[in-house]
């Protein structure tokens, strides 16, 4: 199981990290060999933060080895896909083919989500439809010339997008989903991944829930005529290393409450965070390794991001090498 570092670009708004610290942590992760990926968050009005593409361009200029991605791109259905194709291709060229685009519908219950829907005249159904259309458009613009496309939400008439990305045939496009709905609804989101995505990311954290979703996704990928082993899988997860587990969980709850503007139940905090001593954090993460998750993106739920990242690198990740 590999690891990525999730840089909390929303934390700039409440003093958890500075823009320069984000870039510095990216450089340290790149040199460390402990992290294989760098992730940033994305949202426009739902959960505002530093803009993801701008930030990833900065990280691309300061790193040489790690993959760089957005997890997940909540604004994906709101962006113009032609512009996005050009922007992401440019980013991928700057990064030398080291990018991963994780798309999602970006449905959030906060007031900002409703503002997005009203401004862009979309609802949940339109977001899901655009997700699939936009992925199709990006792949075609990155691999074809003279593209013609007729969709419900977008049309192209003989468009050639230049330059093409560095990665061939195109940068990987994953889909992130965490649907809490009935099982048939969840399975529909898995079917979408199996048909259209190169990978799957989720912030679901209950091990039993993750396990059945992972197995169902593999079955649906096989049914779609693809090799499940070729589908990347990644957890969006949290970590707080502290010999005092109670203190680690208390800080994590304050961090997550502030980050998501909610009163997050402690049960969810505990499930979603590797918290406590290094041994406790390792034990927590082992459950996902044993079920076959390919990677975990770790976000430090702390106001001391630099210290936490060093503790993760020096005290937790060596147990997985």
Description of the molecule:
The protein has eleven helices and eleven strands. The chain has 321 residues and is an alpha/beta fold. The strands form two sheets. Strands 1-2-3-4-7-8-9-11 form an eight-stranded parallel barrel, surrounded by seven helices. A two-stranded antiparallel ribbon has the order 5-6. Strand 7, helix 6 and strand 8 form a beta-alpha-beta unit. The mean pLDDT is 96.
Short description:
Helix content is about 45%, strand content about 20%.
Terminal residue distance = 9 Å
Largest sheet: 8 strands, parallel, barrel
Mean pLDDT: 96
N-to-C order of helices and strands: EHEHEHEHHEEEHEHEHHEHEH
Which class of secondary structure composition applies to the elements?
alpha/beta
The unreliable regions are none
- Structural shape: globular
What is the subunit organization of this protein? single chain
Strand segment tally: 11
